[in-house]
Amino acid sequence: MGPREVERSAMTQTTPEAPARRQRAQVKVRTLRTDRWWLVPLVTFLGLSSFLVYGVWAIIDTSNFVEPYIAPFAAPCLTTQEVCEGARLFGWAPVGDWYALPPGLLILGLPGGFRLTCYYYRKSYYRSFWLSPAACAVQEPHGKYTGETRFPLIIQNIHRYFFYFAVVIGAILTYDAVLAVVHKPLGLGSWILVLNAVLILGYTFGCHSCRHITAGRLNHFSRHPLRYRAWTFVSKLNAKHQPLAWASMFSVMGADLYVRLVAKGIIAFPYA
Amino acid sequence: MSYKAKFKVWRGEGGEGRLEDFTVEVNEGEVVLDIIHRLQATQAPDLAVRWNCKAGKCGSCSMEINGKPRLGCMTRMSTFSEDETITVTPMRTFPVIKDLVNDVSYNYQKAREVPSFTPPADVRPGEFRMKQVDVERSQEFRKCIECFMCNNICHVIRDHEENKPNFSGPRFLMRIAELDMHPYDVADRQETAQEEHGLGYCNITKCCTEVCPEHIKITDNALIPMKERVVDRKYDPLVWLGNKIFKRSS
């Protein structure tokens, strides 16, 4: 008997095929982790929930423009409604006066969809809202799991289309911020909008789909040096995707709230 | 400085077992595996543990320490407070042979299901010419030491045993991504990644990346790029149309 046979024979003796010996360790608790694993999903839940609540309020609220600031949640306004006066892009209003619902509903679905299908946000809400899992090595409460293999979660695969729209929205927010700086260079709001645009662009171009589109789909980087360089730049942004996701989420909320408070006259100092 | 540490260690064969309490000496600079060996030498001579290199490179001593998958040889005792009770169990996702030793044959089965590197038929060995930029992306994945902690922590099979036949786990999806990104590999990896190896089950919660002792960015650099390649192949009508118009192979 050679050494391998001896080893195999020994293994056979210590691992008989009895069903009990083919089981996992029957640890009866959900997790043996002793750290505060629940803290991150809790904070994430509160952060994302506050964004949702704010978004609903921003859609309903009509104070979305004050010269030269346009609230990011309302940009661009696509209707002829009076509440949109000043928030249209080049005065463009493709949706006519028949539209009676809040104008923000027409546009917020695009950046909202971008974030909803974003690979980072998927991680965060699968963990914090669906507890699938709440944290690593913490047993999830669901009896069955099919992931993103079937409807509705298979729709997450359209993320790249939302990315295309997000680039347009990012460009519009940048344009609005530049206009604000040109018209009111000393205005605090102008620079808040600039900061917001920078963070939004950083988040948008650090997207995993963007990384794939620039050159991730290639197997021969050396044949596409410009795309490879773009990919390396996007990869650097992508490494910061999580902090940029949070920073841009709070910046867009903060900038939007600031403009609305100025429009309502609640913030009214000279360089507001 | 040495002190007495309190340990709870899983003892038993197969699934049946219990956590046994031990009080054991700990010296400065030691790791958890050292303490397990001291337990073997002094209090529990029949305690089973798999280990080999004691340098974090063989991937043998994967275990769960205070509920988290860790390499026993790379987990310093100084990361715990002296009054802390340290719980050591085998990996939860795989069957137990004895004590801390798992039967990890699920992983070998999945490894066999991934077709090996498939170069073009007209390129002979010695004729491969690749630039560094073309291969360095997948070289990151070659750092894998096959500790299987990523497959152990993945909730798709950790919490759902029934998914094991349909899901190969992060380790082997990363292997598929490595081959798919290889400039000379011509096998169809994208269709099989989704349909046979269960890439769609991954909901990118990144636990595999969190536990990887080699710090491989499994999710960001392998699983998500592979998901995007699958979208190209199966779910994106514009890419499909572009492939038809420009006669590109997918």
Automatic annotation (TrEMBL), chain B:
User: Start and end of every 2Fe-2S ferredoxin-type domain?
Assistant: 5-92
Q: Which GO terms describe its molecular function?
A: 2 iron, 2 sulfur cluster binding; 4 iron, 4 sulfur cluster binding; electron transfer activity; metal ion binding; oxidoreductase activity
Q: Which GO terms describe its biological process?
A: respiratory electron transport chain; tricarboxylic acid cycle
* InterPro entries named in the record: 2Fe-2S_ferredoxin-like_sf, 2Fe-2S_ferredoxin-type, 2Fe2S_fd_BS, 4Fe4S_Fe-S-bd, Beta-grasp_dom_sf, Helical_ferredxn, SDH/FRD_Iron-Sulfur, Succ_DH/fum_Rdtase_Fe-S
> What pathway is it annotated to?
Carbohydrate metabolism; tricarboxylic acid cycle
- Has the keyword Electron transport been applied to this entry? no
Q: Which Pfam families does its entry note?
A: Fer2_3, Fer4_8
For whether the record's keyword set contains Cell cycle, the answer is no
**What are the alphabetically sorted keywords of the record?**
2Fe-2S, 4Fe-4S, Iron, Iron-sulfur, Metal-binding, Oxidoreductase
Q: Which cofactor does it need?
A: [4Fe-4S] cluster; [2Fe-2S] cluster; [3Fe-4S] cluster
CDD domains from the UniProt entry: fer2 (cd00207)
An annotated GO cellular component: plasma membrane
Origin: domain of life: Bacteria
Family to which the UniProt record says this protein belongs: Belongs to the succinate dehydrogenase/fumarate reductase iron-sulfur protein family.
**Protein's recorded name:** Succinate dehydrogenase/fumarate reductase iron-sulfur subunit
Q: Which organism is it from?
A: Nonomuraea longispora
